[in-house]
Write a structure and sequence with these properties.
Elements (H helix, E strand, L loop, with lengths): L1 H9 L3 H12 L10 H13 L3 H12 L8 H14 L2 H11 L22 H14 L3 H12 L6 H13 L3 H13 L6 H14 L2 H13 L6 H13 L3 H9 L10 H14 L3 H12 L6 H13 L3 H20 L12 H13 L3 H13 L6 H13 L3 H13 L6 H13 L3 H11 L8 H10 L6 H12 L7 H17 L4 H4 L3 H9 L5 H7 L4 H5 L1 H11 L55 H11 L1
């Protein structure tokens, strides 16, 4: 059983390993022959695949049977898994459980049996690792206090993890204090510790100190790893010293590389771009081509650089080279493709560059190529761009994106709906306006009164007062659903039409009418909306339920014609930022330790996305 579970684990088949153990020990013949070592190996397999929830379930199962009750090896395996996943609360609960004797347990034959254990350095280092993931910098002092209390000495991993926690929390002075304390303690300083130190100097803006730290590492005879020089090279590029960064990369030739050289240059280009050094990005790209063939990540980085610096022709030339390479790879025989192929991020970068340059014809071309390549619409990246393209006359792209999102079982973004409603109003297609507003009532979001009025105001150039008045009359003869979005739409239309009907509507809509609308906005306040039922927060909470209802309702004929912009386009791609920690936040490790099993994670009863999509298809 040990070899079988271990073999399945090496192949990544953790589900099969779980099923095998459950099947074997559920039989009558093997029910009383359970092995603690098999379950401990299963915990290790689940840990390698980062299956923390499943590992907790196996741990609870082991605690209920004296034959397989966890020993220190099992606690080590579970603690490391929870620490890597950032499950700090669950890990602290495990520490408390290992100190206690279970009250109820099966197969306990000896009355004097005592399974109580004390956490060791491995368990406490796992707590520090969880603090890194959750950015709980106050946990460092708690861990070191517990180490002293248990007469344990921190090792190099303890100091290194503590430095990482303080680095992510912005406590750079504490990072340096821990580093000095680590050297005084006699613990061997490893290369990864210097990597944390370099990062701290980078974020502090102390470039020369970062270089000096790496030179100190080399003088001490510490064999550096590639990540240290990679971190230093990115730091130098961020502050405009790309030539010095190239010299640091040259030292990677003597080390065992864990990543291709093209990936290293990609990181250097991104850092130079983040630092605002555009010309350095071009220089690094040209230098990299003399040493290695560019991969798609390197090309994507340059597309992003060209797009951000209004160099549309350069990005277009680079993009078309990739497309030609794709076409050539299809003509070649299988297995002889030596060039990079465009991926989803390639098309996303080119869409952003085209939108920034207002090249909407080329934007349409890129979008079509993306669709033909099988890449899906990314709502977070593409929704604002598609709305802007629709405003420029490419409304059919918004239609296609709308349908693609629905086919994927998702709900289109709010901006798609509001723009399609406004465009239908401009075209006097009032039947379609009613259908769209009713469909929005089943979506997992709400449109407030203020948002509807702002939407009409942004489209006032194409909307006249007579059309809005006709739409208002149309709503009287049609039944709107009794939901906040539809009711707020009706209220917004009444406010706009009512504020302008005593004046010359054609002359004042969008001018003098605006001040009257602003004055009427005071009608909407929190108390009145809650009393009238216009802001029902329960509709927002039931997001997935609304998704199913929306998809069912959308079966009506909602062919969109065109749309205009409702929200500002954000061309800058959102970079992944480290989670910020507030210094004032109190964190008491003793208080978050659960006292009962109610705090342990349980499965959710909410329907899955697949179930919602199947419901929509059946209703359709």
């Amino acid at each position: 059983m040990l070899k079988l579970v271990e073999g399945l684990g090496y192949k990544g088949q953790w589900r099969h390993a779980l099923s095998v153990v459950e099947w074997v020990y559920s039989s009558k013949e093997q029910r009383h022959c359970k092995s603690r070592f098999v379950y401990t190996k299963l915990l290790s397999v689940l840990g390698r695949r980062s299956r923390s929830r499943e590992a907790l379930q196996i741990f609870n199962l082991m605690r209920g049977d004296a034959h397989i009750y966890p020993d220190m090896a099992a606690y080590h395996s579970l603690a490391v898994t929870l620490g890597q996943a950032g499950f700090l609360k669950e890990l602290l609960n495990v520490i408390e459980l290992m100190k206690e004797k279970p009250k109820k347990i099966r197969n306990m034959r000896r009355k004097n049996w005592n399974p109580e254990l004390q956490p060791d350095i491995v368990v406490f280092n796992a707590v520090l690792n969880a603090c890194v993931q959750t950015c709980q910098w106050k946990g460092v002092s708690w861990v070191f206090q517990q180490l002293r209390k248990n007469s344990l000495r921190p090792n190099g991993a303890s100091y290194g993890l503590a430095m990482e926690v303080m680095l992510k929390s912005g406590k750079y002075d504490v990072v340096h204090e821990l580093f000095q304390k680590m050297k005084r303690s006699g613990e061997a300083v490893k290369a990864l510790t210097y990597k944390v130190l370099v990062r701290a100097y980078w974020e502090e803006g102390k470039v020369n100190d970062a270089v000096q730290a790496v030179r100190d590492m080399e003088r001490r005879g510490v064999i550096g790893v590639t990540s240290v020089y990679y971190e230093l090279a990115r730091c130098l590029c961020f502050y405009g010293r790309w030539q010095d960064a190239i010299l640091e990369i040259e030292k990677l030739k003597a080390l065992r590389r864990t990543r291709p050289l093209a990936v290293t240059y990609t990181g250097m280009i991104i850092s130079s771009m983040d630092g605002g050094h555009f010309h350095n990005c071009v220089n690094i790209f040209e230098h990299s081509k003399t040493l290695t063939a560019p991969d798609i990540g390197l090309i994507n980085a340059m597309l992003k650089v060209y797009g951000r610096n209004d160099m549309f022709l350069k990005s277009k030339e680079l993009f078309e080279d990739i497309l030609r390479n794709d076409l050539g790879s299809e003509i070649r025989e299988h297995g002889h493709n030596h060039g990079p192929r465009a991926d989803a991020f390639t098309f996303s970068c080119m869409l952003e560059a085209s939108a920034r340059a207002q090249q909407w014809e080329y934007f349409e071309y890129v979008y079509k190529e993306m669709a033909l390549s099988g890449h899906q619409v990314d709502q977070r990246k593409h929704s604002a761009l598609l709305v802007e393209a629709s405003r420029a006359g490419k409304w059919h792209l918004l239609e296609h994106a709308f349908d693609s999102i629905l086919e994927a079982g998702e709900v289109p973004p709010l901006s798609f709906f509001t723009e399609m409603v406004c465009e239908a109003t401009i075209q006097h297609d009032h039947e379609r306006v009613v259908s769209m507003v009713n469909a929005m009532a089943h979506a997992p979001f709400q449109v407030s009164l203020q948002e509807w009025i702002n939407s009409f105001e942004r489209n006032r150039d194409g909307t006249n007062w007579a059309s809005l008045k006709e739409l208002e009359k149309k709503l009287v003869s049609h039944d709107l659903v009794k939901e906040a979005t539809a009711l707020n739409f009706s209220r917004a239309l009444q406010i706009i039409c009512g504020s302008c009907e005593d004046e010359n509507p054609e002359a004042h809509f969008g001018n003098s009418c605006n001040s009257n609308i602003d004055g009427n906005l005071n009608i909407k306040d929190k108390d009145s909306d809650e009393e009238s039922g216009l802001l029902d927060n329960s509709d927002v909470d039931s997001g997935k339920t609304h998704s199913a209802g929306f998809a069912e309702h959308y079966d009506c004929n909602l062919e969109s014609k065109s749309s205009r912009v409702c929200s500002d386009v954000k061309f800058e791609r959102m970079e992944d930022e480290e989670r910020e920690c507030e210094d004032d936040e109190e964190f008491n490790f003793e208080l978050i330790i659960p006292n009962n099993d109610d705090d342990w994670p349980h499965g959710s009863d909410a329907p899955s996305a697949h179930q919602i999509l199947e419901t929509w298809r059946r209703n359709k």
